[in-house]
Fold this sequence. Notes:
By secondary structure, this protein is of the alpha/beta class. Helices cover 45% and strands 14% of the residues. It is built from 20 helices and 15 strands. Helix 1 (6-18) runs parallel beside helix 3, helix 1 crosses helix 6 (96-128) and helix 6 runs antiparallel to helix 7 (135-146). It is elongated, with a radius of gyration of 29 Å.
Amino acid sequence: MSINSKELEQHVLAGLLQHPETYAEISLGIGDKDFFSEHTKVHQTIFRVLRAGLEGGEELDEVVLAQRVKQFNISFEDNVDPTHYIQSLGMRKISRDGLVSAAKELKKFTVRREIVENAREVAKKMQSVGKDHTFDEIVQAADKIYNNQIDSYSVEKASPENIFEEMEEMVEERGNNPVTEFGLMGPHKRLNDTFGSLLRPGNISVVVARAGVGKTTFCLDFATKVSQKYNHIPVLHFDNGEMSKEELIMRQCAALSGIPLHLIETGEWRMNQECVDKIRKVWPQIKDFKFYYYNVAGMDVNSMLNVLRRFYYSKVGRGNKMIFSFDYIKTTDSTLQKGQREWEVVGNMVTAFKNLIQKEILSPDGPTITMITSVQSNRSGVTNNRRVENILDDESIVSLSDRIIQFCSHMFHLRSKTNEEVQAEGAQFGTHVLSCFKHRHLGKNIPRALNLVELEDGSKRKNHINLDFSNFSIREVGDLQDQVDGMGLNATPNEDGGQEGVDL
């Protein structure tokens, strides 16, 4: 197949002569490099002159255009006079829609050339790859060159749009066809009602916690249950060197079966028939699970992006939904370059992931990947604020980079309850507190998110969600308002057989 088209180039040039008002629509999609036929210099020069005139607000006809082109002293095929060549372009009858269509088709040839050129670079790079390189190093070397840039060539991303032109139609259409959920809803009813979906396509939700509190457990449990709820949407889990694949497998088995982790790790579950029965019930549950693990310890952000990108296109497929879990965002000696500060690296990582899932990997309907991740809170941010109930009022608990706060859609602080809190509140209100200090979206029960809760002593506190952690599985047991209202929150079985908070 040819990698250029003289005919299409002539169509676009002729169309711009006849429909100069259309230039604004295609200008961000079409440029010099799209004119690549044997007439490269001729067509590129004509386009450049046309572009300069159109951007300057001039009305160019064939005569004026030919005069300006002549000044570049370029050679036309068969010594054709530039005036005659450009006049012949003007004689082509191209409709406005035909011009837009021709521009899109011309762009496809540019994409082909880019892919061919990338392939050549990959082939050249492979010749220099030594025998000591690992499989991942070989693949990553190719990915850095290839990098899937097709989406950046779209002609349809041409110009800013007036959002109010579509408002009436969009809102009326949604009213005629209401949806019960927007985004992927989590397994916790109060959390859903208060803050809506934490897993919206193109968005990042962040859980902040101290080491050992359970941020990994929360993210894994959340992503797994959401995947299961929506017919096993694929989950890709990046681990930053905190947990091996074997550890993750054992923990997930403990969460699904309810069997203590040490019995699974040691194999002692086989010695107890009740444990055997519970374990054997897990195998049919997981046959449709699509939960993928990848250790990214020591990898730079570009390598991580390449893995994510390659996984999405090969395992998920363009246009399909996916959950991306990252435990957790931090720097390592290998990711921290000389002269860089930690917050810069973390900021760049967050920015890169956000751009990938929101702007690069797209379907015709928009983003398809949603991300949940965690960061470690500053020790100073916690200890400097002695009152436990006020810890999350201060964004200083977030480690390293304010870009995390800037780019995420939701940010929650997760902490363990003190022994005193558990004794005072009762075990029915769980072991952990989940509090929100950033929300870009809210659910249907907005007052529960925004209104302060009045306590028995007359003081007021931000509302929070109560969670009960048990054997790497989590259930919701209401919020602070439920505690004040004296609502009993006994666990009830959910549809998949696990334990969930009471239906509130």
